[in-house]
Amino acid sequence: MPGVDPGLINRKSAIGSKTLSQIARETGGEGWTFYCGHGREGGHEVVTNMQHYLETFIAVTSAAESRRAAIMKMKELFPGFAQDDFLLLHSVNFHVKKSHQP
Question: What's the whole-model pTM score?
Fold first, then answer.
């Protein structure tokens, strides 16, 4: 993405992961309902699942040789992801440089 430092994107994503970790610590395991921007509401597991997904996404897109490879790996790791045809596609397109395309 012209004008955007990929390291900056990863640092912002890492901040998101740290924020989720802080939320998990501060809310404990019971009595909270979380509402995501995408997906169903749920308990504490929603926060930990989001954190795991974000950390995995960062690792996969950082190492991907192409956008297609990143999408295929994420679909393998998270089968049945609710919006893999839209959200995953756009997220990968934003994070994996076009120059890495085969």
Answer: 0.73
